[in-house]
Amino acid sequence: MAPVQSPAIPSGATLESSPDVVIDKQKWEWSELYKKEDWWAIWLGFLLIIVGMLIFLPRPPADMAENLAKADAVLQAEDARAPFRTVEWHKANDAKGGLRATNEPYAKTISKWLQKPDRWSSNPAESLYLSEAAAAARRAKAEPAYKEAQEATKAALTRAEAAQALAAAAFFQDAQLNAAAEQNIAEWRQLREKERGSVRAKATVQAYNKIPYHIGLLILTGLFFTIGILFLKIDTTKFWKGFWFLFLIAVVAMIIGNQETMRKYGFGDVLWAIVLGMLISNTVGAPKFVKEALQTEYFIKTGLVLLGAEILFSKIVAIGVPGIFVAWVVTPIVLVATYAFGQRILKMESKTLNITVSADMCVCGVSAAIATASACRAKKEELTIAVGMSMLFTAVMMIALPTFIVSIGMHPVLGGAWIGGTIDSTGAVVAAGAFLGETGMFVAATIKMIQNVMIGVIAFGVAVYWCARVECAPGQMVSKMEIWYRFPKFVLGFIAASIVISIMYSAMGSAGEVMIEHGFIRGLTRDARDWFFALAFASIGLSSNFRELAHHFKGGKPVILYVCGQSLNLILTLTMAYIMFFLVFPAITAGL
Asked: What is the DSSP letter of 523?
């Protein structure tokens, strides 16, 4: 519903009191709840969350409560016994972490239906089908390296236990012995992570045929979104005619993104979904039959509601005030400064492109770009530019930043906070943080999770600012209803999912990690979100035209904006992280 423009308001008058003002006639209608894609994103997102709860929560692993209590008792005892995390502490924590609802048979069945194409090196067909003979050949090839990794881990554990025994003999009062034990334990943990990573995956690979599952997922996903399509005045038959093609583009993008070299350098399926779609739309042209299936915002908003369920307040509390300062103070400063730089220095013609790129760069990449673009009603090609730059710069930073951090010997907590506050994609943050070890990865992922909370705040702020300042003529005021209509409603679902799941997670104690995080989130909603995002970005690519994008790059302004904004972000985030983690709250850093 378009806003009603108001004439200038006399000095001292308000929108309601001035007799010369045409009051905005927009009204809330209950039909909005089933006629708008934002609301359907919320309903479908929560439907999937509820289905996940009904499947997972009643089916915990055997003896879960007893095993969790035993592990927690050991952790508590070891925390009191030694000034560092002992071998026994790590073993108990590993046992606790091994309790996952996703390891149950029913969860593995669900995983088969939601699985992505597999990793491959030289033969893309192996991403979808691997014969028993090929699987056996892979296992045989990887077995020596796996055995070597196992032996190295075992030897490191022996050294760690010996060093810890010396420290224990001195009642943990000798600082040098404690440091030696802690170092040996850290080396054991690093080797263990390496052993249990790609080396073990290759040595234990089994034959598979993903094609039937992908066909089944195509049907299930199409039916899932058809629930809303029926109410959104979209031709259902035409939607289905194009949906299979869109799904195919998403699968091909995943296949390319899972090539080992592509994965190594961060060129994932999101980027390839856009690239493939743009190649088609700008060469032979997007087929006409696919037009009704290109429901970009419908797909991605549903995925963003599911993302909200992954943001757990307990994780935020674990980092404490330092993490909140790094994520919630630096982010708005960088956003405002970058937007002002784009308008006043670069003189960017499109304010919507400016704010979308700024939010994409300083908050959390793709998710923030979608929410901001929706709030300011940016054009699809402007969103494409923001997302494309985000993916390219993320691929560079996820390699360059951790390499630099390790090369100069930066503290893992400081390095992790720096990575979490500056690299856009959550997945890239985890991958980059892994270079710094367990502590660095934990800090990086948690900082990014805290920063993700800003999605809703930024969307609301942009909606208010755009209504009150950007699209309102001098002397005019905007009605509260116009702000409400401009605000992207799916953000309410994002926030609600985060609150509801966080409360449940905290109420369940240790079982929350088993049944929620490693239950219906990792076992259902996260995988579904990845598929929805792939569909959305394939839609963006197929809807994009290079000629429409070209004028936005005049003078290279979007790239300059992104580089300058990210440079400021890097400097402020590192400074704030150092101040908060090492000067103001060093005790929190010592406990991580």
From this structure: I
